[in-house]
């Protein structure tokens, strides 16, 4: 049965922590891929255009989850990631759109 | 005569670098104060609600300037800071508004 890994409540999501989570080229690429391709998305390293090992990718997913940017769902041996779009829009309107848009 | 300290050209402003500059509680407070109070604003430590020494504040201003978030103008012994609102809006629409808005 699928279960969610621990994550902060919407009201506890902190802007500085979210910015720290986003302020990394790999994590930004992950977030942009999910925003572009739709979610839930698998966690596996071959699903993203990033040059890191699986263990490093796990670390990045954890940072994003603990900051409140993503939800990770475990279903047997598979993990799925969802952007917390509604929660982030509610707390920091426009932020997610601004960082996932193609730069001018 | 007033002169500007070195800063990146608009086209060279990098999103990850901007996010790293913003992802700090002191720097976020500085940016929010300028956004709220209007600019140019003085650089001096007594103009902001932050608990840091002058040297530390200088470091934070440098990080913001080198990331392309602010312009620092030197006029004799005084320094003034301006948000690069137009440049940031052009490169990353909505980002500055999202991080300077009062959180929900």
What order do the helices and strands come in, and which of them pair?
The structure is a homodimer of 104-residue chains.
Chain A: E1 3-4, H1 15-22, H2 25-37, E2 41-42, H3 54-67, E3 70-75, E4 78-83, H4 85-91, H5 95-100
Antiparallel strand pairs in A: 1-3, 2-4, 3-4
- Give the number of helices of chain A: 5
Q: What's the multimeric state?
A: homodimer
CATH superfamily of chain A: Winged helix-like DNA-binding domain superfamily/Winged helix DNA-binding domain
Secondary structure category of chain A: alpha+beta
For this structure, the CATH topology of chain A is Arc Repressor Mutant, subunit A
Residues in helix, % of chain A? 40-55%
Q: Using only CA atoms, what is the Rg of chain A?
A: 13 Å
Name the strands of the widest sheet of chain A in spatial order: 1-3-4-2
Shape of chain A: globular
C-alpha end-to-end distance of chain A: 43 Å
The number of strands of chain A is 4
Mean pLDDT value of chain A:
93
Main pleated sheet of chain A: 4 strands, antiparallel
| Count of discrete domains of chain A | 1
CATH architecture of chain A: Orthogonal Bundle
User: What is the string of helix and strand elements of chain A?
Assistant: EHHEHEEHH
**CATH class type of chain A:** Mainly Alpha
């Amino acid at each position: 049965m699928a279960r969610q890994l621990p994550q902060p409540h919407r009201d506890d999501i902190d802007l500085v922590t979210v910015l720290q989570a986003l302020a990394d080229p790999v994590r930004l690429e992950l977030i942009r891929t999910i925003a572009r391709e739709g979610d839930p998305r698998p966690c596996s390293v071959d699903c993203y255009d990033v040059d890191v090992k699986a263990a490093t990718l796990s670390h990045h997913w954890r940072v994003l989850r603990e900051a409140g940017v993503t939800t990770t769902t475990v279903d047997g041996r598979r993990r799925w990631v969802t952007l917390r779009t509604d929660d982030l829009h509610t707390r920091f309107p426009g932020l997610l759109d601004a960082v996932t848009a193609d730069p001018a």
